[in-house]
Amino acid sequence: MLKIFPEQRPTIIDDIALHGVPASAVSIYKGRNEVFALSTDRGKEINIKAFHVPRFPNSYIYTTLRKSKARRSYLNALKLIELGFHTPQPIAYVEELKAGALHHSYYISEQVPFRNIRNWKTIPDCATLIEDLGIEMHRLMTAGILNRDFSPGNILYEQLPDGHFRFYYVDLNRMEFNVRSHSRLMRMFRAITLDKDELRELAEAYARAASLPVKPTVDEAMRQHNNYLEEKRQLNKLKSIFK
Question: pTM here?
Answer without folding.
Answer: 0.93
